[in-house]
Amino acid sequence: MQLVQLVTHVCEICNKAFTLKNALKYHLLTHTKEKPHVCDICGKAFAHKHYIKSHLLTHTNEKPHVCKICSKAFTQSGNLKSHLLTHSKEKPHICKICSKAFTLSSTLKSHLLTHVKEKPYVCEVCSKAFRHRLSLKSHVATHSNEKPHICETCGKVFTHKSNLKCHLLTHTKEKPYVCEICSKAFALNHHLKSHLLTHSKQKPYVCKLCSKAFTAKGSLKSHLLTHIKE
């Protein structure tokens, strides 16, 4: 039996070896930072041809990768793979500091910042720093006073999409967050969290003027007004 000898193509910069010449060709782009594949619609550039193919789907809103369990559709196969983990409840990404497990590697990366207290994303307007890029993006919108998210029911506008989602629940009267102790339902998750404190008798909000403690943040705010009146 004759063995076929594999030809190895080695990168002269980092000595990484590849079986295929094309693989080496693609790898070299990581060193040169060259992005020869440009989107004709928005001008965004990519190093590899398959990246631009995936990107073009964002313009057409085409979502060819469909979850067989819940029928949710995705633009990229990688996003579908990440989504499938939510069905399996598998959490393969584990924090080495506190052993907390996560479904996605990106979520683990965000979590790690809570240990190092690092805030790499800084606002250019007021220098406020954030752990996450999306938090900075949301914050920057507060400087511009731009409110691009509009409620189609009443016309109310919001800076953040998450605020619009919360607002929409006031129209639908939907209350998806249910207390497991007394079955009381709430429209917003943070309202449920505040409610749960009434069962635990925990009072984390303390007045710095008189040391009186409260279950809810809103109750503390109302209490502070009594000191102002004094």
Summarize the structure.
With 230 residues, the protein is α+β, with helices and mostly antiparallel strands. Helices cover 42% and strands 14% of the residues.
Largest sheet: 2 strands, antiparallel
The CATH level-2 architecture of one domain is identified as 2-Layer Sandwich
Rg of Cα set: 26 Å
Q: Based on Cα principal axes, name the global outline.
A: elongated
CATH class descriptor name of one domain = Alpha Beta
In words, what does this structure look like?
- This protein has eight helices and 16 strands.
- The chain has a two-stranded antiparallel sheet with strand order 1-2. The chain has a two-stranded antiparallel sheet with strand order 3-4. Strands 5-6 form a two-stranded antiparallel ribbon.
- The longest helix is centred in the last third of the chain and has 13 residues.
Write the SSE topology.
Elements: E1 9-10, E2 17-18, H1 21-32, E3 37-38, E4 45-46, H2 49-60, E5 65-66, E6 73-74, H3 77-88, E7 93-94, E8 101-102, H4 105-116, E9 121-122, E10 129-130, H5 133-144, E11 149-150, E12 157-158, H6 161-172, E13 177-178, E14 185-186, H7 189-200, E15 205-206, E16 213-214, H8 217-229
Antiparallel strand pairs: 1-2, 3-4, 5-6, 7-8, 9-10, 11-12, 13-14, 15-16
